[in-house]
Amino acid sequence: MTLIHRTIEANGMRLHCVEQGEGPLVLLVHGFPESWYSWRHQLPAIAEAGYRAVALDVRGYGRSSKPHAVGEYSMLRLAGDVVHAVGALGESEAILVGHDWGAPIVWNSALVRPDLFRGVAGLSVPYSARSGKRPSRVFSAIAGPDAEFYIEYFQEPGRAEAEIEKDVRQWLLGFYWGASGGPVPNQPPIFRVPHGTELRDTFVYPETMPDWLSEEDLDFYTAEFERSGFRGPLNRYRNVDLDWVDMTAFHQSPIVIPSMFLGGEFDGPTLWGATAIERFSESLPQLRFSRIVPGVGHWIQQEAAEETNAALLEFFATL
């Protein structure tokens, strides 16, 4: 089956998407710093199983719209993109799958519009209902007094952009490898940036390219970001406190539709989210299953493509 590139108008945005197959709609939502291409192993597997798999370029990425203002990347706006994409694709319902920032996007899409989605699968980042703690205060506590948590480091517009754009390809390789399961246990913590340094100063690099990330894959990502830049992707991080305010009406609210979670043994957000995972019986009352894949880091659908595909298809079969 051929990959079809198309552009849809959704929520006032132009969203580029790539689709394969026919059947019930499955929307795939990527994270940072990624692309529709992050789902290259899932698109054919889902299509061959009898579904219409559609991978979006999130606003700010690839060929999708790139509004300038920070507030244009709030969670409610991104969830709105997903909600409106269903109708723009000519469908009345969908199954959601998200990874990294794509996971909170699909979790919150399911939270605000449960009538529109048959099920929701989160990879890497577990669902955590809105708490009473402002996120910026939580991040400061994680990093300690002599460093910044990477999300804090990303807050000042232009700062991280300038670092990354010195050498996009090398920065991406360091970020991808450092967050993967490859360098464990000798990996410096890339999520913690000592004062007076840059995030890239914490990076380690592979001696050879890993099986899950070829030179051609890295070339694709590099070309996408050299064309589109990083302002939009980084603006997502600059909305964490605004999101906390915007979601006040959903304080401690569970997601009521069928759900699943898949994380990696060495995945930072999965490890940090251990408490959220323990609360799934309350926050995800229709949870089908929650699993941790051994030996895998953050890029689970690329590092462990077969395991991810099998888990997703198992979940879809329950809906």
What characteristic shape results from the CA principal axes? globular
The arrangement of helices and strands along the chain is EEEHEHEHEHEHHHEHHHEHHHEHH
How many individual helices? 15
- C-alpha Rg, in Å? 18 Å
Give a structural overview.
Helices cover 37% and strands 18% of the residues. With 319 residues, it is an alpha/beta fold. The chain is globular. The two termini are 24 Å apart. The model has no long low-confidence stretch (mean pLDDT 95).
Topology:
Elements: E1 4-10, E2 13-20, E3 25-29, H1 42-48, E4 52-56, H2 75-88, E5 94-99, H3 102-112, E6 117-123, H4 135-143, E7 147-149, H5 150-153, H6 159-164, H7 168-179, E8 192-194, H8 215-228, H9 231-235, H10 240-246, E9 259-264, H11 268-272, H12 274-278, H13 280-283, E10 287-293, H14 300-303, H15 305-316
Helix pairs in contact: 2-3, 7-8
Task: Name some characteristics of this structure.
single chain; 319 residues; alpha/beta; 8-stranded mixed β-sheet; two-stranded antiparallel ribbon; 15 helices; 37% helix; globular
Describe this structure in a few short sentences:
The protein has 319 residues and is of the alpha/beta class.
